[in-house]
Design brief:
β1, α1 (19-32) and β2 (37-42) form a beta-alpha-beta unit. The protein folds into two domains: 6-195 and 310-339, 3-Layer(aba) Sandwich (Rossmann fold), CATH 3.40.50.620; 214-305, Orthogonal Bundle (Tyrosyl-Transfer RNA Synthetase), CATH 1.10.240. By secondary structure, it is mostly helical. The longest helix has 30 residues, at 310-339. The chain starts with 5 loop residues before the first strand and ends in a 5-residue tail after the last helix. The chain contains 15 helices and five strands. The structure holds tryptophan. Tryptophan binds at residues 8-10, 12, 43, 46, 133, 136-137, 145, 147, 151, 154.
C-alpha cells in the first residue's frame, strides 16, 4: 500500500537555540515544506524526562515556536504545535511500550550516555523516551523524518516498533481493512556533514547550548555586533585557507568555518575554497561575519519580536494542535480497533 508522504520532526524546547540547530535542523525543515506536508513538533513531553523548571519550559516552548516561524516555516500551510496538547502521543506511546522489547531499549546509546553511572536514579521516562518518539512519528503515519546523526538509532527503533506492530497484528490489520501494513516504516532524512556545526572555540566539539563559553556558539538571538565579534574571534590556525577540500583535513576549525559559510550561502565547500583559498583567514572571517549577520540578523530580530507576542505564539500552537489532533485521533481509533480495545 502506498502511504501519503508526510514529514514529521521534533525539537526539544531548550533555551539558546544556536547556529547548529539552525543549519542542522531548521533549515532542512524549511526546505522540506516545498515537497511534503510537514508536521513540526516542540516535544515538551520529551523535555520532562529530565526535570525542567516549569516557567522555563513554557518560555523555551514558545521560543522554539518563534524560531520555527522566524526561520520561515509557514504555520498555515504546515503544522507547528507542542506535543503535550495532543494527548494521542501519550496514548500511542503506551501501545509502543507494549510492542518494544526491553532488549531494544537497553541498547539505546543515548540512554546509556544520559544515564551514565546513575541508572537507578534517572526517570523511567528517560528509558522509554525512544518509545514516545516512535509514537510521535507513527501517530501521524509519517513517512520521512529529518533528524541528526545522533537520532538515527532512535529512528531505527521507531521502524522496528512499526514493523513489529504490523506483524503482531497482521491478521487484525487486514480484517479491519488496512491491507498488509498499518504503519509505514519511517525513513530518516539525515543531515549531511556540511551542516554539522562545531564549537567556535574547539573544532572537535559540537556547537552546544550547554558549552560554558558563550563565545563557542552563535545564538539565534544574538545581535549583529555580537555575531560579527564571535566570528572574528573564532579559533583558527596560522595557515592560509587551502584551495581544495582535502587541504581542510586535520584542520577542524578551518573546516568548520568553511562549512558554515557554505551552508549559510547554499553553496559547496569547494566553491567557498575556490573563492577564498590561498587568502588570509582575516579576509575570509570578515566575509563570513557579513554573511552571518545578513542571514541570521533578521531571524534573531523576528524571534525577539515573536517571543514577546505570547498571544500570537499560543494561537499558532493551539491551531497547530487542533490540526495535528485531527490526524492523530484517526490513527488512534484505528489502533484501538486493531489492538482490540472496545471504544465508543
Ligand atoms: N529526540 C529528538 C531529539 O532530541 C526529538 C524528537 C522527539 C524527535 N520526537 C521526535 C525527532 C520525532 C524526530 C521525530 O532531537
Amino acid at each position: 500500500m502506498a502511504f501519503k508522504e508526510r514529514v514529521f520532526s521534533g525539537v526539544q524546547p531548550t533555551g539558546n537555540l544556536h547556529l547548529g540547530n539552525y543549519l542542522g535542523a531548521i533549515v532542512k525543515f524549511v526546505a522540506l515544506q516545498e515537497n511534503y506536508d510537514c508536521i513540526y513538533c516542540v516535544v515538551d513531553m520529551h523535555a520532562i524526562t529530565v526535570w525542567q523548571d516549569p516557567a522555563e519550559l513554557k518560555k523555551t516552548t514558545r521560543e522554539v515556536t518563534a524560531a520555527f516561524i522566524a526561520c520561515g516555516i509557514d504555520p498555515q500551510k504546515h503544522i507547528i504545535f507542542n506535543q503535550s496538547q495532543v494527548a494521542e502521543h501519550a496514548e500511542l506511546a503506551w501501545v509502543c511500550n507494549c510492542v518494544a522489547r526491553m532488549g531494544w531499549l537497553n541498547r539505546m546509546t543515548q540512554f546509556k550516555e544520559k544515564a551514565g553511572k546513575d541508572r537507578e536514579n534517572v526517570s523511567v521516562g528517560l528509558f522509554v523516551y525512544p518509545s514516545l518518539m516512535a509514537a510521535d512519528i507513527l501517530v501521524y503515519r509519517a513517512t520521512h523524518v529529518p533528524v541528526g546523526e545522533d537520532q538515527k538509532q532512535h529512528l531505527e527503533l521507531s521502524r522496528d516498533i512499526a514493523q513489529k506492530f504490523n506483524n503482531d497484528f497482521a491478521e487484525s490489520i487486514r480484517s479491519h481493512g488496512f491491507g498488509d501494513a498499518f504503519f509505514p516504516l519511517p525513513e530518516p532524512l539525515i543531515q549531511g556533514p556540511a551542516t554539522r556545526v562545531m564549537s567556535l572555540r574547539d573544532g572537535s566539539k559540537k556547537m552546544s547550548k550547554s558549552d560554558a563559553s558563550d563565545q563557542s556558539r552563535i545564538n539565534l538571538t544574538d545581535d549583529a555586533d555580537t555575531i560579527a565579534l564571535k566570528i572574528r574571534r573564532a579559533k583558527t590556525d596560522p595557515h592560509p585557507l587551502p584551495s581544495e577540500e582535502k587541504g581542510l583535513e586535520g584542520r577542524p576549525e578551518a573546516e568548520n568555518l568553511v562549512g558554515i559559510y557554505a551552508a549559510l550561502q547554499g553553496v559547496s565547500r569547494a566553491d567557498v575554497l575556490k573563492q577564498f583559498g590561498g587568502g588570509q583567514f582575516s579576509t575570509f572571517k570578515n566575509a563570513l561575519a557579513d554573511l552571518s549577520v545578513a542571514k541570521l540578523g533578521p531571524i534573531g530580530a523576528e524571534m525577539k519580536r515573536l517571543t514577546q507576542d505570547h498571544a500570537y505564539i499560543d494561537k499558532v500552537l493551539a491551531h497547530g494542535s487542533e490540526r495535528a489532533q485531527a490526524i492523530a485521533a484517526e490513527t488512534m481509533k484505528a489502533v484501538k480497533d486493531i489492538v482490540g480495545f472496545v471504544r465508543r
